[in-house]
What does this fold into?
Amino acid sequence: TFRYGYRLGYRYQISDDSNGQVLWTEHTLNSRDQLTRGTFGNELHLEQYYDEHGYIRQADTYNPDKQTPISRPDFTLTYQFDSQTGNLDARQNYAYNHFENFQYDALDRLVQWGDETQQYDNRGRITQNKLGYYNYDDNKIYQNTSTDLFPEAQSYYQNREGIFNDGMEEQKGWSDLGLGWDIFGKPTYDDSKVKSGKYSLKI
It folds into this structure.
Protein backbone atom coordinates (compact mmCIF):
# COMPACT_ATOMS: atom_id res chain seq x y z
CA THR A 1 0.00 0.00 0.00
CA PHE A 2 1.25 3.48 -0.87
CA ARG A 3 0.89 6.65 1.16
CA TYR A 4 0.78 9.97 -0.67
CA GLY A 5 2.05 13.25 0.72
CA TYR A 6 0.51 16.55 -0.38
CA ARG A 7 1.75 20.11 -0.24
CA LEU A 8 -0.51 23.06 -1.15
CA GLY A 9 -2.98 20.58 -2.60
CA TYR A 10 -0.44 18.88 -4.89
CA ARG A 11 0.96 15.40 -4.43
CA TYR A 12 4.71 15.58 -3.98
CA GLN A 13 5.72 12.37 -2.22
CA ILE A 14 5.03 8.63 -2.36
CA SER A 15 6.01 6.28 0.45
CA ASP A 16 5.50 2.67 1.50
CA ASP A 17 2.67 2.74 4.03
CA SER A 18 3.90 -0.41 5.76
CA ASN A 19 7.29 0.95 6.83
CA GLY A 20 7.29 4.66 5.97
CA GLN A 21 10.10 4.34 3.42
CA VAL A 22 10.00 7.23 0.95
CA LEU A 23 9.91 5.96 -2.64
CA TRP A 24 9.66 9.25 -4.54
CA THR A 25 9.80 12.97 -3.76
CA GLU A 26 9.15 15.90 -6.06
CA HIS A 27 11.36 18.89 -5.31
CA THR A 28 10.82 21.51 -8.01
CA LEU A 29 8.36 22.21 -10.82
CA ASN A 30 8.49 24.80 -13.60
CA SER A 31 5.86 27.41 -14.43
CA ARG A 32 3.86 24.78 -16.33
CA ASP A 33 3.81 22.50 -13.25
CA GLN A 34 6.15 20.09 -15.00
CA LEU A 35 8.63 18.17 -12.88
CA THR A 36 12.18 19.53 -13.05
CA ARG A 37 13.80 17.77 -10.09
CA GLY A 38 12.94 14.78 -7.92
CA THR A 39 14.51 12.03 -5.83
CA PHE A 40 13.91 8.28 -5.92
CA GLY A 41 13.79 6.19 -2.76
CA ASN A 42 17.33 4.93 -3.40
CA GLU A 43 18.60 8.56 -3.30
CA LEU A 44 19.19 8.78 -7.05
CA HIS A 45 18.17 12.17 -8.40
CA LEU A 46 16.14 12.94 -11.52
CA GLU A 47 16.39 16.22 -13.43
CA GLN A 48 14.20 16.99 -16.44
CA TYR A 49 14.56 19.77 -19.02
CA TYR A 50 11.94 21.10 -21.43
CA ASP A 51 11.90 23.20 -24.60
CA GLU A 52 10.06 26.49 -25.01
CA HIS A 53 6.90 24.67 -26.07
CA GLY A 54 6.77 22.52 -22.94
CA TYR A 55 7.98 19.28 -24.51
CA ILE A 56 10.50 17.28 -22.52
CA ARG A 57 13.98 17.59 -23.99
CA GLN A 58 16.19 15.63 -21.60
CA ALA A 59 15.95 13.52 -18.45
CA ASP A 60 19.03 12.76 -16.33
CA THR A 61 19.12 10.23 -13.50
CA TYR A 62 22.29 10.51 -11.44
CA ASN A 63 24.02 9.77 -8.17
CA PRO A 64 24.49 13.06 -6.29
CA ASP A 65 27.54 11.68 -4.46
CA LYS A 66 29.66 11.62 -7.63
CA GLN A 67 32.35 14.27 -7.71
CA THR A 68 31.66 16.34 -10.83
CA PRO A 69 28.42 17.26 -12.62
CA ILE A 70 29.86 16.11 -15.96
CA SER A 71 30.30 12.55 -14.70
CA ARG A 72 27.08 12.43 -12.72
CA PRO A 73 24.38 11.13 -15.11
CA ASP A 74 23.98 7.37 -14.88
CA PHE A 75 20.97 7.28 -17.15
CA THR A 76 20.20 9.97 -19.77
CA LEU A 77 17.27 10.12 -22.17
CA THR A 78 16.87 12.84 -24.81
CA TYR A 79 13.79 13.64 -26.90
CA GLN A 80 12.92 15.68 -29.99
CA PHE A 81 9.29 16.68 -30.60
CA ASP A 82 7.55 18.38 -33.51
CA SER A 83 6.20 21.55 -31.91
CA GLN A 84 3.27 21.79 -34.37
CA THR A 85 1.97 18.24 -34.24
CA GLY A 86 3.28 17.15 -30.84
CA ASN A 87 4.70 14.00 -32.44
CA LEU A 88 7.86 12.49 -31.05
CA ASP A 89 10.46 12.70 -33.84
CA ALA A 90 13.44 11.08 -32.12
CA ARG A 91 14.73 9.84 -28.79
CA GLN A 92 18.03 8.50 -27.50
CA ASN A 93 18.92 6.27 -24.57
CA TYR A 94 22.54 6.97 -23.69
CA ALA A 95 22.83 4.09 -21.23
CA TYR A 96 22.35 1.61 -24.07
CA ASN A 97 23.56 3.89 -26.89
CA HIS A 98 20.20 3.39 -28.56
CA PHE A 99 18.77 5.98 -30.97
CA GLU A 100 15.33 5.92 -32.62
CA ASN A 101 13.70 8.05 -35.31
CA PHE A 102 9.90 8.12 -35.69
CA GLN A 103 7.96 8.74 -38.89
CA TYR A 104 4.25 9.42 -39.37
CA ASP A 105 1.77 9.42 -42.24
CA ALA A 106 -0.43 12.31 -43.37
CA LEU A 107 -2.88 11.50 -40.55
CA ASP A 108 -0.12 11.62 -37.90
CA ARG A 109 -0.18 7.87 -37.41
CA LEU A 110 3.09 6.20 -36.50
CA VAL A 111 4.35 4.21 -39.50
CA GLN A 112 8.05 3.70 -38.82
CA TRP A 113 10.47 3.76 -35.89
CA GLY A 114 14.01 2.48 -36.27
CA ASP A 115 13.84 -0.52 -38.60
CA GLU A 116 10.24 -1.35 -37.66
CA THR A 117 7.14 -0.42 -39.65
CA GLN A 118 3.40 -0.41 -39.07
CA GLN A 119 0.57 -0.46 -41.60
CA TYR A 120 -3.09 0.60 -41.41
CA ASP A 121 -6.24 -0.10 -43.42
CA ASN A 122 -8.70 2.53 -44.67
CA ARG A 123 -10.55 2.32 -41.34
CA GLY A 124 -7.45 3.33 -39.41
CA ARG A 125 -6.87 -0.11 -37.88
CA ILE A 126 -3.39 -1.56 -37.51
CA THR A 127 -3.08 -4.39 -40.01
CA GLN A 128 0.58 -5.35 -39.80
CA ASN A 129 3.76 -4.65 -37.85
CA LYS A 130 6.74 -6.57 -36.50
CA LEU A 131 4.51 -8.95 -34.55
CA GLY A 132 2.42 -10.10 -37.52
CA TYR A 133 -1.02 -9.62 -39.11
CA TYR A 134 -3.92 -8.28 -37.03
CA ASN A 135 -7.43 -9.73 -37.30
CA TYR A 136 -10.67 -7.97 -36.34
CA ASP A 137 -14.25 -8.91 -35.50
CA ASP A 138 -16.61 -8.56 -38.49
CA ASN A 139 -19.35 -7.10 -36.31
CA LYS A 140 -17.21 -5.09 -33.87
CA ILE A 141 -14.88 -3.80 -36.51
CA TYR A 142 -12.36 -2.17 -34.16
CA GLN A 143 -12.10 -5.15 -31.83
CA ASN A 144 -8.88 -7.06 -32.38
CA THR A 145 -9.61 -10.80 -32.19
CA SER A 146 -6.19 -12.29 -32.86
CA THR A 147 -2.76 -11.74 -34.35
CA ASP A 148 -1.09 -14.09 -36.79
CA LEU A 149 2.48 -13.94 -35.51
CA PHE A 150 5.51 -13.89 -37.75
CA PRO A 151 8.01 -16.71 -37.04
CA GLU A 152 10.43 -14.34 -35.25
CA ALA A 153 7.72 -13.07 -32.90
CA GLN A 154 6.36 -16.55 -32.25
CA SER A 155 9.82 -17.81 -31.36
CA TYR A 156 10.33 -14.88 -28.98
CA TYR A 157 7.14 -15.57 -27.02
CA GLN A 158 7.68 -19.33 -26.95
CA ASN A 159 11.21 -19.05 -25.58
CA ARG A 160 10.60 -16.12 -23.24
CA GLU A 161 10.38 -16.83 -19.54
CA GLY A 162 6.93 -15.56 -18.63
CA ILE A 163 6.96 -12.75 -16.09
CA PHE A 164 3.58 -13.87 -14.77
CA ASN A 165 4.16 -17.61 -15.21
CA ASP A 166 7.03 -19.78 -14.00
CA GLY A 167 9.30 -16.83 -13.24
CA MET A 168 6.69 -15.43 -10.87
CA GLU A 169 6.07 -18.68 -9.06
CA GLU A 170 9.78 -19.43 -8.67
CA GLN A 171 10.58 -15.86 -7.59
CA LYS A 172 13.53 -15.54 -9.94
CA GLY A 173 14.68 -13.63 -12.99
CA TRP A 174 14.47 -10.11 -11.51
CA SER A 175 17.47 -7.80 -11.80
CA ASP A 176 18.56 -4.17 -11.89
CA LEU A 177 18.70 -4.20 -15.74
CA GLY A 178 22.49 -4.26 -15.57
CA LEU A 179 22.73 -0.63 -14.44
CA GLY A 180 24.35 -1.38 -11.09
CA TRP A 181 21.40 -0.15 -9.05
CA ASP A 182 17.87 -1.29 -8.50
CA ILE A 183 15.32 1.33 -9.61
CA PHE A 184 12.44 0.07 -7.51
CA GLY A 185 14.33 -1.67 -4.73
CA LYS A 186 14.36 -5.42 -4.33
CA PRO A 187 10.97 -6.95 -5.17
CA THR A 188 8.92 -8.53 -2.43
CA TYR A 189 6.21 -11.12 -2.82
CA ASP A 190 2.73 -11.07 -1.39
CA ASP A 191 0.73 -14.32 -1.23
CA SER A 192 -2.40 -12.68 0.21
CA LYS A 193 -3.67 -10.83 -2.88
CA VAL A 194 -3.52 -12.93 -6.02
CA LYS A 195 -6.00 -14.06 -8.68
CA SER A 196 -4.24 -17.36 -9.33
CA GLY A 197 -1.10 -19.12 -8.25
CA LYS A 198 0.66 -18.56 -4.97
CA TYR A 199 2.51 -15.28 -5.45
CA SER A 200 1.97 -11.81 -6.87
CA LEU A 201 4.62 -9.16 -7.36
CA LYS A 202 4.51 -6.30 -4.87
CA ILE A 203 6.22 -3.14 -6.15
